[in-house]
Amino acid sequence: MSGVYIIGAQYSTFVRAVALCCEEKGINYGLGFDFPDHTLEYKGVTHYRLHPFGKVPILIHGERTIFESTTICRYLDSEFSGKKLQPSHHFERAQVDQWCAAISTYIDKALIRDYLLEFSFPKGRDGDIRWDKLEQSKPKVEETFSILNQQLGNNTFICGDRYSIADALLTPILDYLEKLSDAKALFILYPKLESYLLRMRCRKSGQKVLIAAEISS
């Protein structure tokens, strides 16, 4: 079967999560909207054919296509050799799965959709930041940091003592937030999360993927 290609923008947190999994497993991959013999138009006919909801990332592996970030990561972990990003024990795997789901939904919404993107892509009149919306979102941001801090505890990784798909999903989110001046105070309040992020950035995968953020702050 031919190589792996991740369709999506490099700055996307979910695209970066898939790329982190590829790096951790040593999978060679391409990334972007220009893949062999074809350029995919965002929200075009081909995009909707590959992902019925017009989102990214989408994985191309030979003749196979898969969408939804966590599903893609699980597929890569099962299909390719190398280090395992999911525990073999059923209960431990369920713990990772539940945090993958939480990060992809509640945490992404609180920290990215309702908070960071207001700085990056303001929706106010004349493209201004809606500071009232940010004030409304801050309690949920603070609550989310507290939950993550409690889950991390004294562990090296978010689900224990080994790197998992949950770390790949969480790292790009925290990486963007830490670069946002308005959110730096939260990392001061939760130094364990700051140390966690530093560890993830220092990994070879982090050094390769967490680069030149194209989303401004």
From TrEMBL:
It holds the Pfam family GST_C. Keywords: Transferase. It is an enzyme of class 2 (transferase). InterPro entries: Glutathione-S-Trfase_C-like, Glutathione-S-Trfase_C_sf, Glutathione_S-Trfase, Glutathione_S-Trfase_N, GST_C, Thioredoxin-like_sf. This is glutathione transferase. Coiled coil: none annotated. It comes from Vibrio zhanjiangensis. It comes from the Bacteria. Its EC number is 2.5.1.18. Residues 2-84 form the GST N-terminal domain. Residues 89-217 form the GST C-terminal domain.
